[in-house]
Design goal:
The complex is a heterodimer of chains A (about 170) and B (about 425).
Chain A (H helix, E strand, L loop, with lengths): L19 H10 L10 H12 L4 H11 L3 H8 L13 E6 L2 H5 L2 H12 L13 E6 L11 E3 L2 E3 L7 H6 L3
Parallel strand pairs in A: 1-2
Antiparallel strand pairs in A: 1-3, 3-4
Chain B lengths: L26 H6 L4 H7 L3 H11 L11 H6 L10 E6 L9 H7 L1 H15 L3 E6 L4 H16 L15 E6 L9 H8 L23 E5 H13 L1 H6 L10 E8 L5 E6 L2 E2 H8 L9 E5 L8 E2 H6 L1 E2 L1 H6 L8 E6 L4 H15 L5 H18 L7 H11 L8 H15 L1 H9 L9
Parallel strand pairs in B: 1-2, 1-4, 2-3, 5-11
Antiparallel strand pairs in B: 5-6, 7-10, 8-9, 8-11
The chains are: A alpha+beta (about 170), B alpha/beta (about 425).
The structure holds flavin mononucleotide and FE2/S2 (inorganic) cluster.
Flavin mononucleotide binds next to strand 4 of chain B.
Chain lengths: ~170, ~425
């Protein structure tokens, strides 16, 4: 599932990501790899952690920092489904619906998530901007169906009944 | 968290011995449990002797292909003056498979130790552990364990005081099943799109950063220290059937069973016992319909095949499928085979890197055809069309993702044709005039 739809990307001038702490984090990575290019995925993670999504301007900044072109960086960003190329809700929910989870009732978990978050539809953000829900492929926890990821929290064995309680923890 | 179940009497716990025991996660805790002795021993051996020992154990890759591990290591060039690399494949994204995750969550030092041993064997100073982006918790646990291992000098500039440099670097993926394919994984570490590379050259000749590289699965590497400590003969002796399949193996069992989970049994263990005893069998009133035993990328087995198969590389092939990553997707009589096959095709269509036409188009079109069958719009010729497409998707692409999509389709049609025919019989023709 590619990045979820959100509000249109804002046009505000780009505040560089790689200053201060994020810069230090990135530079600490350089000695671990023989090329700077190899730091691209980690650099993109830093951008997403700092800004919530990866804007075209941020891609250009990453390109400059690592000696790549913006087009190249964009090509890499769009290959990987976890990088957001649009802003998403405050809490980003990924729910697995691949066969093993489907066999164990993931469809009902999806329904409960869409209803309780108010998203209504997969890939959309709730009107209050609180949640985005997307469907994803196997999360590698099929024995604990249905797993969901809420931001960085991996939650196992989710049932429709558990959904309201889980969401209450994310304001 | 959902672990552990107490080991079943029929399990042979080696890798999973400390699952559920959070004390094993620290360096000190791991040493207390006998950890890092295997690495100490390995660093006192020559790389050649190490490779011979692993060869003699019969250990085969646990990532999917079952390639003999010692032999793979022996392909690495000697004294070539180039940097060598080890990649540890912790991308675990194969539907039905969730064993590497448990190894990293509970016994992170077992993996670090295995990686360090393999580095010594292949003459590498750096090991990159590629962990799928969604594994947030295992990543954190591994991160803490790596820092702990550095702090205690188990790895780093002078690993275990041996004078050897062994660096362990964690690399986080970002959502792409294909990055589990070995050369796609290397591209991904290099900061590229995760497109598999054409082989040859094989990784041992030109892999990560163009240098000689070995890649192994998490479970493969975690088994290595045990082999060193207890001996190749002990490991080889762990075998209930075919001598080409040795050791213990973690089997992930999911889907329609009462007690899904990971179960560690000796190679050659009866599949029937694994499903009905260890995994608790079917839900009340339900009967077994099908098992996909290798993660989702292998042919479906019907009930007779599954109940008579032995769990090892050869045993599963004998009953019409493949071991793959040993993740069992179990379906009872309530499962809709056509839907599940469709859902898997959709998975492969979503995950195709789209380099090869047969895969990009084949996964997309098989998904669409199966979808229209499900919606009552199938055509009589659809099954032949699916088989024809599947044929074009098999053995014709850079990697086997495309073959993996075809396997459940072809076997599904062959073994459960009645279910496909029933959808076609109910078909009402296209919803809109064409
Ligand atoms: C599409 C595809 C996905 C794969 N995914 C994984 C994976 O997630 N984990 C893994 O260990 N091997 C995976 N493999 C197999 C690897 O390419 C490789 O064979 C394996 O990591 C080698 O390690 P081993 O010899 O220890 O098994 C995948 C292969 C293909 C073609
Ligand atoms: S299929 Fe849902 S976690 Fe694997």
């Amino acid at each position: 599932m590619s990045a979820a739809q959100g509000a249109a990307p804002t046009e505000a001038p780009h505040e560089p990501v790689f200053a201060g702490k994020p810069r230090e984090r990135l530079e600490a990575l350089f000695p671990k790899y023989p090329t700077k290019q190899a730091c691209l995925l980690p650099a993109l993670w830093i951008v997403q952690e700092e800004r919530g999504w990866i804007s075209p301007a941020a891609m250009a900044e990453v390109a400059t920092v690592l000696g790549l072109t913006p087009a190249y960086v964009r090509g890499v960003v769009t290959f990987y489904t976890m990088y957001h190329t649009h802003p998403v809700g405050r809490h980003f929910i990924q729910v697995c619906t691949t066969s093993p989870c489907h066999l164990c009732g993931s469809d009902d978990v999806v329904k409960a998530l869409l209803k309780e978050t108010g998203c209504g539809e997969l890939g959309t953000t709730s009107a209050d901007g609180r949640f985005t829900v997307i469907e994803v492929e196997c999360l590698g926890a099929c024995g604990f169906a249905t797993p969901i990821l809420v931001d960085n929290d991996f939650i196992e064995s989710v049932t429709p009944e558990r959904v309201p309680g889980i969401l209450a923890g994310y304001r | 968290m959902g672990y552990p179940h107490p080991p079943h009497a029929k399990e042979s716990v080696v890798l999973s011995k400390h699952f559920g025991d959070a004390g094993a996660r620290t360096y000190a805790g791991w040493v207390e449990r006998g950890g890092y002795e295997g690495l100490k021993k390995a660093l006192g051996m020559t790389p050649d002797a190490l490779i011979e020992e692993v060869k003699a154990s019969g250990l085969r890759g646990r990532g999917g292909a079952g390639f003999p591990t010692g032999l793979k290591w022996s392909f690495m060039p000697k004294n070539d003056g180039k940097p060598h690399y080890l990649c540890c494949n912790a991308d675990e994204s194969e539907p039905g498979t969730f064993k590497d995750r448990e190894i990293m969550r509970w016994t992170p030092h077992a993996l670090i130790e295995g990686c360090a041993v393999a580095c010594h064997a292949i003459g590498a100073e750096t090991c990159y552990i590629y962990i799928r982006g969604e594994f947030t918790e295992p990543y954190k646990i591994m991160e803490a364990a790596v820092a702990d291992a550095y702090k205690n000098g188990a790895v780093g500039a002078n690993a275990m005081g041996s004078g050897k440099r062994i660096d362990i670097v964690l690399h986080r993926g970002a959502g792409a099943y294909i990055c589990g394919e070995e050369t796609a994984l290397m591209n991904s570490i290099e900061g590229k799109r995760g497109n598999p590379r054409i082989k040859p050259p094989f990784p041992a000749a030109a892999g990560l950063f163009g240098m000689p590289t070995t890649i192994n699965n998490v479970e493969t590497l975690a088994a290595v220290p045990h082999i060193l400590m207890r001996g190749a003969a002990w490991y080889k002796g762990l075998c209930l059937s075919n001598p080409k399949s040795t050791g213990t193996k973690l089997w992930s069992v999911c889907g329609h069973v009462m007690k899904p989970g990971n179960f560690e049994v000796t190679m050659g263990f009866p599949m029937k016992d694994l499903i009905y005893e260890l995994a608790g069998g079917m839900r009340p009133g339900r009967t077994l319909k099908a098992v996909i035993p290798g993660g989702s990328s292998v042919p479906l087995m019907n009930r007779e095949e599954a109940e008579s198969a032995l769990c090892d590389y050869e045993g599963v092939v004998e009953k019409g499928s493949m071991l793959g990553s040993a993740g069992f997707i179990v379906m009872d009589d309530s499962a809709d085979i056509v839907y599940e096959v469709y859902r898997l095709a959709k998975f492969y269509a979503h995950e195709s890197c789209a380099q090869c036409t047969q895969c990009r188009e084949g996964t997309a079109w098989t998904t669409k055809i199966l979808e229209r069958m499900l919606h009552g719009q199938g055509k009589p010729e659809d099954l032949d069309l699916l088989l024809d497409l599947s044929d074009n998707m098999t053995g014709k692409t850079i990697c086997v993702l495309s073959d993996s999509c075809a396997a459940p389709i072809v076997s599904g049609i062959k073994k459960f044709r009645g279910e496909f025919d029933a959808y076609l019989a109910r078909a009402k023709g296209p919803a809109v005039a064409v």
